[in-house]
């Protein structure tokens, strides 16, 4: 198990997951962070420490690999996925199962969180009718204008 943690640490440092990208990078970051956090947490605090470490590692790895505008969603997904995967994996296959579960859960959670964060429903795509710059008093679209005292 000690050699596995060293190999995971080396792979995470040289993987290139620190380059901000898309869903695949968030998945890879969540998997590596969840697995590495699980190993470190297990050495520090047993099964509870492994679950906490997997959550923290999955959040950090997913956030590093996610797009700029969806890092929060990817971090939440990676944390929940890695921690949940670690707990389920430990129940099924012991510490090795917890490691594998944290990796799979962190990858799935990071990818889903990043994809959910990218979904903006296309509301603000048209510059002519950008709803963020118009008030809606009930009588159509009226552009917000400064008062004549402030011009």
Structure write-up:
- This protein has helices at residues 2-14, 23-65, 71-118, and strands at residues 134-135, 142-143.
- It contains 3 helices and 2 strands.
- Helix 1 crosses helix 2 (23-65) and helix 2 (23-65) packs antiparallel against helix 3 (71-118).
- The chain has a two-stranded antiparallel sheet.
- With 151 residues, the protein is mostly helical.
- Strand proportion: under 5%
Low-confidence stretches: none
Q: Helicity, in percent?
A: 55-70%
Per DSSP E runs of 2 or more residues, the count of β-strands stands at 2
Strand order of the largest sheet: 1-2
Listing every helix as H and every strand as E from the N terminus to the C terminus, the arrangement reads: HHHEE
The number of helices is: 3
The end-to-end distance, rounded to whole angstroms, is: 69 Å
Secondary structural class: mainly alpha
Shape: elongated
Largest sheet: 2 strands, antiparallel
Mean pLDDT: 78
Q: State Rg.
A: 21 Å
In brief, what are we looking at here?
Helices cover 69% and strands 3% of the residues.
Fold topology:
Elements (H helix, E strand, L loop, with lengths): L1 H13 L8 H43 L5 H48 L15 E2 L6 E2 L8
Antiparallel strand pairs: 1-2
Helix pairs in contact: 1-2, 2-3
List keywords for this structure.
151 residues; mainly alpha
């Amino acid at each position: 198990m000690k050699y596995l943690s060293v190999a995971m640490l080396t792979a995470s440092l040289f993987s290139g997951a620190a380059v901000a990208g898309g869903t695949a990078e968030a998945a890879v970051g969540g998997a590596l962070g969840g697995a590495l956090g699980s190993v470190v947490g297990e050495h520090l605090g047993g099964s509870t420490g492994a679950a906490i470490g997997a959550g923290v590692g999955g959040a950090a790895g997913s956030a590093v690999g996610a797009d700029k505008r969806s890092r929060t969603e990817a971090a939440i997904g990676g944390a929940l996925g890695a921690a949940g995967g670690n707990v389920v994996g430990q129940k099924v296959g012991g510490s090795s199962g917890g490691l594998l579960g944290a990796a799979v859960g962190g990858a799935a959670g990071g990818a889903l969180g990043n994809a959910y964060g990218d979904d903006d429903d296309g509301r603000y795509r048209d510059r002519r009718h950008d709803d963020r710059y118009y008030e809606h008093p009930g009588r159509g679209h009226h552009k917000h204008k400064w008062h004549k005292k402030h011009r």
